[in-house]
Design goal:
- The chain is mainly beta.
- It has one domain (2-22, 39-231): Porin.
- Helices cover 10% and strands 54% of the residues.
- Strands 1, 2, 3, 4, 5, 6, 7, 8, 9 and 10 form a 10-stranded antiparallel beta sheet that branches.
- A hairpin with a 2-residue loop joins strand 3 (68-81) and strand 4 (84-88).
- It is elongated and about 65 Å long.
Length: 232
């Protein structure tokens, strides 16, 4: 994931440099920024783990290992001002995380939980763009999202004592990021990097308040990095 992000940053810088060096510049999509509403879609990768806060300073510790997941969705964009857009980006985001409860002795059946999460996300974002410079236009973006977790297990009566790690269905996150619109002859390519952070506690505690898995966890919330490749 780090290599992908580094490649994206290098590509952005290279694009800006090469564009500035071309003497005979061709301006693509000259009327695009005058549109009131436009649509698009995005594909991307994500890497997410959890922020965990504990109730007491004990030996309880959860080590989170995240794998790279994928994201896909649609884009609806409303121009509010020449440099400000309101954007709606509904989509799916999937990722798997492994939780190692290092304070629990015994086999993997007790100390390891694999959490697969598929979220249906509804981000409402505000995009602030610079003025267009030939065929590029950098921007920053941020907002909030309602996320529905299809893999939550919230209604499952079994808990970690039976090997079931439970998360809440309904969650809220905030999202911030930066990117660049690259105007091409037939479409606009818009790579961006986003940080996503949970607002609410996503953990469903075990039935036993003194559970060795969740009893000492005060807060558990998603945090992650998204690489989005958008096409308009």
């Amino acid at each position: 994931m780090k290599k992908v992000l580094a490649f994206l940053i290098i590509s952005m810088v290279s694009t800006c440099f090469l564009t500035a060096q071309i003497k005979d510049k061709v301006i693509y999509k000259q009327n695009w920024d005058k549109k009131r509403v436009f649509w698009g879609y995005y594909l991307g990768l994500n890497k997410k783990d959890y922020k965990i806060n504990y109730k007491h300073n004990t030996n309880t510790f959860v080590d989170v290992s995240a794998s790279t997941g994928f994201s896909v969705g649609l884009i609806g964009d409303l121009r509010l001002h020449k440099n400000i857009n309101l954007r709606f980006e509904p989509g799916l985001s999937s990722n798997t995380k492994e939780l190692a409860f290092t304070h629990i002795s015994g086999g993997k059946s007790d100390s390891i939980r694999e959490v697969s999460s598929t979220y249906l996300r509804f981000p409402l974002l505000v995009k602030f763009s610079t003025n267009r410079y030939y065929n590029i236009r950098p921007y920053v973006i941020g907002g909030i999202s309602y996320d529905y977790n299809f893999s939550s297990n919230e209604d499952n009566p079994d808990d970690n004592a039976s090997g079931e790690f439970r998360m809440k269905k309904n969650n809220f996150t905030y999202e911030i990021g930066a990117g660049i619109d690259i105007y091409l002859p037939y479409f606009i390519f818009s790579p961006s990097i986003r940080g996503v952070f949970a607002i609410n506690n996503e953990l469903v505690p075990d039935n036993d308040p003194n559970s060795q898995w969740t009893g000492n966890i005060d807060y558990l919330g998603t945090r992650g990095v998204f690489l989005k490749l958008a096409f308009h």
